[in-house]
Amino acid sequence: MNLDFKIKNLLLICLIFLGVFHQYYSQQQHIPGFKTGADQPELYLPLLKGKTIGVVTNQTGLMSDRTHVVDFLVKNGVKIQSIFAPEHGFRGDADAGEKVKNGVDVKTGIPIVSLYGNNKKPKAEQLKGIDIVVFDIQDVGVRFYTYISTLSYLMEAGAENKVEIMVLDRPNPHDGYTDGPVLKKKWSSFVGLHEVPVVYGLTIGEYGKMVNGERWLKNGIQAKYTVIPMKNYHKKHRYPILDKPSPNLPNDKSINLYPSLCFFEGTQVSVGRGTDLPFQIYGSPWTTGLPYQFTPRPNFGAKDPFLNGKLCYGENLSKYTTDLRELNLEWVIKAYKHYKNPQLDFFLKNLWFDTLAGTDELRKQIIAGKSVSEIKASWVNDLKNFEKVRQKYITYED
Questions:
Q1: Of 99, 116, 97, 95, nearest to 299 (Cα)?
Q2: Spatial CA neighbour of 387 closest among 201, 191, 144
Q3: What is the pTM of this model?
Q4: Of 65, 134, 309, 317, which is the most buried if we count CB atoms within 10 A?
């Protein structure tokens, strides 16, 4: 009996190992020879030799063996003057909207300069003595995710101070399609600087090329701009992400749902900050007709979450399996219809919803009871016009 038990256990371990190996092997088969920009040092180390550099990065600036790009550059003798930290900080542990502080990286002793809070654009004195700034951040391909704005301000500062910008390109988990309202200039902000749709279908390297090529930087200036492209990248494929891009996008499911659910941030409805399922659930105390219940509480990703301590009624989308290749507006419309007195206060008084949407039209369409198909039909012409711009900057197989 003892021997039988041991043999069964051994067989079980072997089966588990084979399953894990098969999953890993299948993933590798799906992306043969794929490499990020960071994983091709032979392309960028020669360009950095003898230069003084800055690095804009966070916890996602990893190579395939999980070495951080900063540690790799230091090990290879590259002189780094400063690390510039975007929203959420260098180690990615700051709340959304929380001011990121300057400091020193404990591991390398390199000074950290915040690019979030009052200093979103590097100052001339912060770039003094720097030849090249290397940008390596995992983006999520959505207009209101702020890393493309950080890149744009960096490019502007680079152009003004004759500092080259080099992007180590990474996958876009919402690549290969465009959707959503195109931002109108009146609603330009840090969560949407340019006249692009919510989902714009470009990698961050391609996005910077577009900003430069279309002369969207202040006064039409252009940066000296280099992209270290990915190898064997296909826009329609979806690639594993090595670390969560921010505290409340902990996994592929939250990233998949993010473009559709982020609109709730402009309403009285929670998107699950302060729970174990951020951007995978939604609900409020005033949508009692919806089936799922949760209560936001302070946690690592949200020190003071919206609707803290209040019982919310909504939907749990954590088992939603569709790889979204379009915005799903059904959830925000459903919440609006279930909301008590929606015309009174469903949308926040500061109209943050319009800032996120890049226009006031979407809010007005929801209030007017327009259907999803009617709303999406109103985006068609703007999306067609944007597509003509987008096509000029596509580097990878679309």
A1: 95
A2: 201
A3: 0.88
A4: 134
Which ranges constitute the DSSP H helices of the chain?
2-30, 41-48, 69-75, 124-127, 147-161, 204-213, 252-261, 330-338, 342-345, 352-357, 361-367, 372-377, 380-391
The 3-state DSSP class for residue 249 equals strand
> Both tokens of residue 138?
């995992």
Q: How far apart are CA 186 and CA 355, in angstroms?
A: 9
Cβ proximity of 31 and 239 under 8 Å:
yes
CA dist 80 to 37, 46, 53, 109, Å?
19, 15, 5, 10
Which of 201, 327, 310, 315 lies closest to 262, judged by CA? 327
Residue pair 198/180 in contact by the 8 Å Cβ criterion: yes
Contact predicate 238/323, CB 8 Å: yes
Contact predicate 150/115, CB 8 Å: yes
Using one digit for the tens of pLDDT, what is the confidence trace for 165-224? 999 999 999 999 999 999 999 999 999 999 999 999 999 999 999 999 999 999 999 999
How many other C-beta atoms can be found within 10 angstroms of the C-beta atom of residue 186? 9
Q: Are 315 and 279 in contact, with CB atoms under 8 Å apart?
A: no
Q: Is the pLDDT higher at 94 or at 159?
A: 159
Spell out the residues 6+ positions from residue 100 whose beta carbon is closer than 8 angstroms to its own: 85, 86, 87, 88, 89, 94, 114, 115, 116, 117
d(CA 391, CA 177) in angstroms, rounded, equals 12
Mean pLDDT of the chain: 90
Residue 345: left (phi > 0), alpha (psi -120 to 50), or beta? alpha
Structure confidence by residue, pLDDT tens digits, 48-96: 999 999 999 999 999 999 999 999 999 999 999 999 988 766 764 445 5
CA distance 41 to 76: 10
pLDDT of 19 higher than 50: no
Q: Which residues lie closer than 8 Å to 375 by C-beta, 6 or more apart?
A: 329, 362, 365, 366
Q: Give 256-278 pLDDT, tens digit per residue.
A: 999 999 999 999 999 999 999 99
Given a contact cutoff of 8 angstroms between Cβ atoms, the answer to whether 137 and 57 are in contact is yes
Q: Say which DSSP state 116 is in.
A: S
